[in-house]
Amino acid sequence: MDPSKNSPLSRLFGRSPFDAVAEHIRQVDHGADLLGAYLEASAAGDWARADGLHTQIAECEHAADDLKDRIRLNLPSTLFLPISRSDLLVLIEAQDKIINKIKDISGLMTGRRMQFPATLEQPIGDYMQTSIASVHQARKVIEELDELLDSGFGRNVGEMIEDMVVELGRLEKRADEEQIDIRQRLLALESELPPLEVMFLYRVIDWIGTVADRAERVGSRLQIMMAR
């Protein structure tokens, strides 16, 4: 029997440290899907369901935090991998910021029982789906890491990863464009809404875009790692 298979490190990381990193991004990705369902529940005024979804999002955030902490505590100072320990830790931190912002959105909307004006529901829904798609794409990129390592960062796999990161950038750009459109629509409605409500609506709009931005940064971090 190989004693290394029973070590705390192998139990946490499986075949490689990227197993734990991939598990972390899957928690983040699940939280993004829950946020999409949360927006639908809040728009319908179903606050019992929305509250339950917020609780599930918080559980995803806690699970991701636990994984992040375990990776930090168990990752050896020297890794026989094509990337450095510090790069791996920066990557996991970039992933963690996504789920943190997802929780911020559902937390603020839950606490204030926030709903968007009816005329904004469709564009907000589309905007949210773009941000969620960005997180899905970040997950796909991370899940290719093991193949990337197995190939020794070979040209074909490297090009595939590059294409996936380009798609991440395209989604982030689309989210930016959708945010601009929604902000303009909300500007036209400002006089009909309580000023404090308007302020928080703008904040949520901004945070939805932040989710896409942080997903794109995960791809950027991977590009930097590949270039070293």
TrEMBL record:
InterPro entries: DUF47, PhoU-like_sf, Put_Phosphate_transp_reg. Coiled coil: none annotated. Gene3D superfamilies: Phosphate transport system protein phou homolog 2, domain 2. It comes from Salinisphaera orenii MK-B5. This is Phosphate transport regulator. It comes from the Bacteria. Pfam families: PhoU_div (PF01865). PANTHER family: UPF0111 PROTEIN HI_1603. Belongs to the UPF0111 family.
